[in-house]
Amino acid sequence: MTGSKKVYATADAALEGLLHDGMLIAAGGFGLCGIPELLIDALVRSGVKDLTIASNNCGVDGFGLGKLLDTRQIRKMISSYVGENAEFMRQYLSGELELEFNPQGTLAERMRAGGCGIPGFYTKTGVGTVIAEGKEVKTFDGQDYILERAIVADLSIVKAWKADDTGNLVFRKTARNFNPPAAMCGRVCVAEVEEIVPRGSLDPDMIHLPGIYVHRIVQGPHEKRIEQRTTRKKETA
Amino acid sequence: MTGSKKVYATADAALEGLLHDGMLIAAGGFGLCGIPELLIDALVRSGVKDLTIASNNCGVDGFGLGKLLDTRQIRKMISSYVGENAEFMRQYLSGELELEFNPQGTLAERMRAGGCGIPGFYTKTGVGTVIAEGKEVKTFDGQDYILERAIVADLSIVKAWKADDTGNLVFRKTARNFNPPAAMCGRVCVAEVEEIVPRGSLDPDMIHLPGIYVHRIVQGPHEKRIEQRTTRKKETA
Amino acid sequence: MAEASKGWDRNQMAARAAQELEDGMYVNLGIGIPTLVANYVGDKDITLQSENGMLGMGPFPFEGEEDPDLINAGKQTITELSRTSYFDSATSFGMIRGGKIAAAILGAMEVAENGDLANWMIPGKLVKGMGGAMDLVAGVGRVIVVMDHTNKAGESKVLRECTLPLTGKGVVDRIITNLGVLDVVPGGLKIVECAEGVTEEELRAATEATIVS
Amino acid sequence: MAEASKGWDRNQMAARAAQELEDGMYVNLGIGIPTLVANYVGDKDITLQSENGMLGMGPFPFEGEEDPDLINAGKQTITELSRTSYFDSATSFGMIRGGKIAAAILGAMEVAENGDLANWMIPGKLVKGMGGAMDLVAGVGRVIVVMDHTNKAGESKVLRECTLPLTGKGVVDRIITNLGVLDVVPGGLKIVECAEGVTEEELRAATEATIVS
């Protein structure tokens, strides 16, 4: 794939020229599953700061987006869940970190809307809760809904399983999660993948995210850490 | 797959108990590509009338949804395009048929919204045109958008390539088109497919529409008529 | 005050909750006791959704077969089934918000007699976030709460009004606790059944909410 | 009045329009002359979208290789390429509305000096519907119209104001006709170039719209 215009040799190269302090980054992943590990590490190395990051979680202490908490590069998180991350909760409760809680589905839909030219949509989620505070309420067919705004990010960072050199992406199992909507909402999207395959080797019916959404690609390796290793015993005969 | 609760032997059986005069039906397909041929024929045979049908096109004269025009079972169409269908245009211009023109993307998004619990969304499409008449206009970041409402259908009829007996669907090439959003917006969805395959033989990463959206399934055969046969000549050596 | 240990234990509550599920249902189970419900569905054809993007959630993997790309919404390693499909988070919550999931069985910190539910934060103390809970309670067909009837101090968690920030307003349909089963009806809660060894008087005494007959 | 046959022919207009496209662009081509643009992109790496759910549209199939499941937005049989991906209509128009398509090249019945475009109906006469045109002109990065400068009666189609129902308001960026190329700018249209054998005076004479310099 050498020579393809979207393929970059390293995560640092793939982010070159795209970063500025105070920018809004949308990141794929759920917990530690399907997170853009390499690009997060490159963000740490870049030193870019005052970031606002839209991501369902913020990694765990010392891994994933948690690394950017440790280096204080994040000013604000837009997330649905901070559990499993002591430093996240500490920075939030001490006021060092701004946190905008979004219901998980609202966050996913806000990203998709941003990628789909829909500036706002109505949802039942959060009606009558703190989430509705300051938001327009509209009644449709006798039921109240709140207006939620789209997220359009300066940059999206996502992780896929495979890509071809045109940026067509395929995800694997539940590692898909927020990656497609996060990719869609970025003005620029950089994807890291486990394998870049030759053009034509992905079935065009089976592409999860068309290359039009993906501007730069970099290939792994990935640690793919497991957050909660739960197993059962094989019953012995 | 005999014995599976979602699989029906005929299209007529698959529609049994689901039809009533005056109902709203969402239909997949684009032109004659990926249309639910068998279910349309069954609708003709059922004699159900005063239908409102949300579908991008209305087939052609005598094929696809055009058959339901011939029998005068349709009261109103919600469509983006009536070209290539003389009877459709005639019934519309003579006032026999009500027609609500929707921009194609607005129609697709209204269906998706209906399936996703989003009662309304804003779009730039149609601002300043007849499409905007009577619709709420809202300004986001200095740009005008109009409010479009979701479509929730009493019944969805769609066509897929393959299904397993739990209703997981896979589509083929551009025959996918409106089928997933149409399926999503139905309170009940009936899918006709070319082949019902054993459970577990579809790759779970490659299912285009999960079975949760599909309540009944019936297997082909399909005519799959081509509307515009365009070809090029092989260059002789 | 009834002790928290009175009546059903965790597994009995889960078994009682499993009776709420009907053949063919697509269901979302929350973390904690609700997760145990899967063990009690018996022969019923139930498809479990995991809101991080999966229908047809299977059991934990055998040791050594864990897949980092295959986790549930509690971030636990799981397995797939022959019916499984994967999709992205926007699609997943589309089906939740769109009412395609027949029922959600969730834990709670507090439930009120009007169906209000609080299960996502204790101000200044515990801030985990709502995750997908607000979407679930707003969107699914039927919301069933499974929880202990009282807290560790023996105070009722079934209240006139919730004191904690809400997850959803008027969203709960049925409450299953260690002491019994209650439905949210106009005017308050209606006792559906008492747990084994629990009298209606004990259930009423442990409940702050209005009980209507 | 310049005759419609003056200046560029259909293929020359398409060739001129192809110059608007840059390497790496994702582009949507309308029906008619715009379709011909694909023949003139040369070495540039252009990916064509077909709004019925495809990126990477290939040429017509060889005879006997037509696939009823593979058509373009004009319902013509086509082929796929090594870069092709398929998706549903909601996703397709999501990428259109979301500005992911860099340019659309479309035909028109009328264009006005403020960028208004009419190309979907003639009241009481021709009712085909807007199809995807309203979404395209509202959403794509750059809208380029390719059309004859005048109608069969020799009347200008480049107007002060459109008389037909609009497809989009203030959406056109550039107009390419048989007589030349014009840009929509504040106050009116600006002549970018004249077609071969057409003088600026002829172009101005055939144009009802205000031309600014």
Automatic annotation (TrEMBL), chains A, B:
Q: Can the keyword Disulfide bond be found in this entry's annotation?
A: no
* UniProt keyword annotations, A-Z: Transferase
The keyword Disulfide bond appears for this protein: no
List the InterPro entries hit by this protein, alphabetically: 3-oxoacid_CoA-transf_A, CoA_trans_fam_I, CoA_transf_BS, NagB/RpiA_transferase-like
- MF (Gene Ontology): transferase activity
Family per record? Belongs to the 3-oxoacid CoA-transferase subunit A family.
Give one Pfam hit by family name: CoA_trans
Task: Note the SUPFAM superfamilies from the entry.
Answer: NagB/RpiA/CoA transferase-like
Q: What is this protein called?
A: CoA transferase subunit A
From TrEMBL, chains C, D:
Keyword terms, alphabetized: Transferase
- Top-level taxon of the source organism: Bacteria
Xref: SMART domains: CoA_trans
Alphabetical list of PANTHER family matching this protein: KETOACID-COENZYME A TRANSFERASE (PTHR13707), SUCCINYL-COA:3-KETOACID COENZYME A TRANSFERASE SUBUNIT B-RELATED (PTHR13707:SF57)
By sequence similarity, the record places it as follows: Belongs to the 3-oxoacid CoA-transferase subunit B family.
What GO annotations for molecular function exist for this entry? Answer: transferase activity
The cross-references to Pfam families, in alphabetical order and at most eight, read:
CoA_trans
Its recorded name reads CoA transferase subunit B
